[in-house]
């Protein structure tokens, strides 16, 4: 069973996004706090991810339950916030992965990918102003990505000037440069990004181009 996702994090370009993965097992956990350093937003708050897994303690089944959490450490004046991102129940030893891809340039939206191969794959879009999350299922689109031989996971490249999410393969530069799609948030369908359509890259705290 999948719970609603909320996710915050710093923004980096593809290949630099914060990520964490593990196999679902008994009483296990991983986090991104030390990989290579906590990610920070424009307001200097720090965010990192944690995944926990254990037996689901079901009466009629003994599947493996996974819990995804986001921990936000404000810069000053407030205590840490722990957000339950996702709860899933499934096969033991399945791979659990989550990626923080970044902020919109105004800092109001945060994007990333959650992936459980053979189970769930989706992109999340968290609106910090409205405190609302959109989660779009990408499971069917992953098949097309594999057919291109460009990896098995999407990444959020940025947004268009109208705010639509742009996806690209989480793979080598050649694949990213050759394949980008605009996401339909209602149906989860992808359509090729027109060559002339600019992409507003996610916020990177360093010096990255606004458009590509």
Any descriptors?
212 residues, mainly beta, five-stranded antiparallel beta sheet, 42% strand
Describe the structure.
- By secondary structure, the chain is mostly beta strands.
- The chain has one domain.
- Helices cover 7% and strands 42% of the residues.
- The chain contains 2 helices and 15 strands.
- A 5-stranded antiparallel sheet has the order 1-7-8-9-10, covered by helices on one side.
- The chain is globular and about 55 Å long.
- The N terminus and C terminus are likely disordered.
What is the domain tally?
1
Please bin the fraction of helical residues: under 10%
Order of strands, widest sheet = 1-7-8-9-10
How are helices and strands ordered from N to C?
A: EEEEEEEEEEHEEHEEE
N-to-C span: 38 Å
Number of helices: 2
- The dominant shape is globular
The main sheet comes to: 5 strands, antiparallel
In percent, how much strand structure appears in the residues? 35-45%
Question: Whole-number radius of gyration?
Answer: 17 Å
The number of distinct β-strands equals 15
Mean pLDDT across every amino acid position = 78
Given helix and strand content, the structural type is: mainly beta
pLDDT < 50 runs, ≥5 residues? 1-15, 205-212
């Amino acid at each position: 069973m999948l719970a609603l996702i909320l996710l915050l994090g710093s923004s980096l370009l593809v290949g630099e996004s914060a990520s964490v993965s593990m196999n679902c097992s008994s009483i296990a956990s991983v986090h991104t706090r030390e990989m290579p350093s906590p990610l920070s937003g424009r307001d200097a708050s720090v965010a990192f991810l944690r995944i926990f897994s254990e037996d689901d303690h079901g009466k009629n089944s003994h599947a493996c339950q996974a819990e995804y959490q986001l921990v936000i450490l404000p810069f000053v004046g407030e205590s840490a916030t722990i957000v339950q991102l996702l709860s899933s129940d499934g096969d033991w030893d399945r791979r659990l992965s989550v990626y923080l891809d970044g902020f919109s340039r105004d800092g109001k939206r945060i994007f990333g990918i959650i992936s459980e191969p053979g189970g769930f794959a989706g992109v999340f879009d968290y609106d910090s102003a409205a405190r609302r999350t959109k989660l779009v299922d990408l499971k069917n689109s992953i098949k097309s990505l594999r057919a291109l031989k460009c990896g098995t996971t999407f990444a959020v490249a940025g947004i268009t000037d109208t705010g639509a999410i742009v996806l690209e393969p989480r793979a080598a530069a050649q694949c990213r440069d050759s394949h980008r799609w605009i996401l339909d948030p209602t149906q989860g369908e992808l359509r090729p990004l027109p060559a002339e359509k600019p992409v507003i890259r996610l916020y990177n705290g360093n010096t990255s181009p606004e458009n590509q």
